[in-house]
């Protein structure tokens, strides 16, 4: 799946999840997905900005996480996924990548 497909999937999923009360970001090299969950609904954009939590990975690893082929904890422990910021918020992300 390319970045556009991942952006569409995250946007669709974010519409079905209650706002987190914070901003979080997925960083895929130069591409980012920023989810603003501070309002009444989650707003997803491909614009970079400040976030309480940033998840950095590559598109292939994200796709494996989304499909269930890769355990999120194992991805973090092996360095395939890096988390910067609010770890508690990162734990809530499971609902956005399923």
Task: Write a concise keyword list for the protein shown above.
98 residues, alpha+beta, 5 helices
Poorly predicted runs are none
Radius of gyration over C-alpha positions, nearest whole angstrom: 12 Å
Helix content: 25-40%
Question: Count of helices?
Answer: 5
Rounded mean pLDDT is 91
Order of helices and strands: HEEEEHHEHH
CATH superfamily: SCP2 sterol-binding domain
Total beta strand runs: 5
Description:
With 98 residues, this protein is of the alpha+beta class. It has a single domain (3-97), classed as Nonspecific Lipid-transfer Protein, Chain A. The chain has helices at residues 3-14, 59-67, 72-77, 87-91, 94-97, and strands at 23-28, 31-36, 43-45, 53-56, 82-85. A 5-stranded mixed beta sheet has the order 3-2-1-4-5. A hairpin with a 2-residue loop joins β1 and β2 (31-36). The chain is globular and about 35 Å long.
SSE arrangement:
Elements: H1 3-14, E1 23-28, E2 31-36, E3 43-45, E4 53-56, H2 59-67, H3 72-77, E5 82-85, H4 87-91, H5 94-97
Parallel strand pairs: 1-4
Antiparallel strand pairs: 1-2, 2-3, 4-5
């Amino acid at each position: 799946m390319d970045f556009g497909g991942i952006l569409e999937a995250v946007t669709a999923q974010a519409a079905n999840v209650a706002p987190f009360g914070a901003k979080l970001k997925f960083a895929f090299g130069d591409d980012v997905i920023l989810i603003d969950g501070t309002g009444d609904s989650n707003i997803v954009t491909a614009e970079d900005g400040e976030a309480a939590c940033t998840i950095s990975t590559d598109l292939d690893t994200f796709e494996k996480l989304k499909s269930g082929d890769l355990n999120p904890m194992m991805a973090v422990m092996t360095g395939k996924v890096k988390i910067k910021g609010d770890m508690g918020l990162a734990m809530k992300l499971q609902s956005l990548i399923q």
